[in-house]
Amino acid sequence: MAALVLAAAVVAAACGSSDTIGGGNKGKVQVAKGGKPTGDVTISNWPGYIDPGKDGTVANFEDATGVKVNYIEDINDNLQFFGKLQPQLESGDSGGRSLFVVTNWMAKQMNDLGYLEQLNHADLKTVFDNIRPEFAEDDTDPGRKFSVPWQGGLTGIWVDTSKAPEIKSISDLFDPKYKGQVEMLTEMRDTVPLVMQSMGADPSNFTKEDWMAAIDKIKQATDSGQIRRFTGNEYTEDLTSGNVVAAIGWSGDASLIGNKNAEWRRPTDGCDTFFDQMVIPVGAPNTAAALAFMNYAYRPEVQANIAAYVNYVTPVDGVQPILAKKDPELGRDPLIFPTAASLKGCSGDPDPPGSAQDQQEVTEAFQNVVTG
Length: 372
Known about the structure:
With 372 residues, this protein is of the alpha/beta class. Helix content is 36%, strand content 15%.
């Protein structure tokens, strides 16, 4: 029930509802304050989304700035993270965080609710000097007023090739011979568009009926026991332990999977892309350090280390020649540097179409399946 309430709140924000939720900034535009970075800063991110260790980006940032970083990998699902923080953000409290990373659609909806501080581009010179042109604008944040791209990628299928090498499509996941050995993501905008495409829907024109038909198919598979469970990043644990033969998952998660037979595959019957964004929440206690971290991550040599570890699409210009020199294979990796042609026809974590009521009906239908 809690998930449904939160989903409804997010939908209301997306559609400009006048409900009482959404007063994190008390109706005032708050701009993140820059300056010399000092003190401590807390950053929340998804698991395995940065190069770790004593020679990793966080440690090097600490050495370069003197800022002490509390780096937390506590984001597993956009809606789940929103639910954890929403009561605090509503009162203008960031929960001690000065920076976190969420997918672009969630960043927009948090901003619409008044939960994010705005960005002064003068404080982000390194970011805007080095951002790749195709990421300088985003439909969810024209002018980059509140978000800076972190990494992006593709949603597809992770397959245990020692058990089910023949799985190549989303349709294959519904084959009864894999009953109870398949998982899907709790992220509606990743899972449902792939199922819609496998059913023949046009990603450039998904209808409400397409969404509901796909959700009904997922529900039937859930009720029959075909789908083992819905997960955030936990699917990586189930692939590691051998609990599943395949899972819908994200292209760069190899570092989280301890199974040499696990292979990410782009489905033959669908394609979905996503991009995650760095944002500064209202009430952030150390915005100067957060802005400094954004700038630091946009140094091409720093970003090259991140990209080499996470294998996701990098938004920073100048990274490819650095990687090509270090590792020619990485320098031409299509998961890090996809071509526009290779992404043609992909969906992009779309919102359901229609009115606020239409979107809420779709969202609730999916959440009902996920929560049982």
